[in-house]
Write a structure and sequence with these properties.
46% helix, mainly alpha
């Protein structure tokens, strides 16, 4: 039996509001929000991502570089991580 939320209305289920392809498992890489970080984002940030105005991949590359990590999550040191990030972002945005 589905646990009801106080906001649930009779006849409406969470599944009715989630894109069917996510529930069907066609794109398992998007099926969950590991750690719940996307759910914690503000609406303005999520909307900018949805509109393509904010590239979360670029944000991730830059944040990993700031930690001295490669895009694969391996420690490479700050200098090498910065060079890797620059190479990735130059290729993506400057062609």
């Amino acid at each position: 039996m589905k646990k009801r939320n106080s906001n649930d209305k009779p006849g409406l289920r969470t599944e009715d509001f989630i894109a069917p392809f996510l529930l069907a498992g066609e794109h398992p890489e998007f099926d969950s929000d590991a750690g719940g970080h996307v759910q914690c984002m503000g609406n303005d940030t999520l909307a900018a991502v949805a509109r393509g105005e904010l590239d979360l991949n670029a944000v991730a590359v830059l944040n990993l570089a700031a930690r001295g990590m490669s895009p694969e999550g391996q420690w490479v040191g700050f200098e090498k991580a910065g060079k890797l990030a620059k190479r990735i972002l130059d290729r993506k945005y400057r062609g």
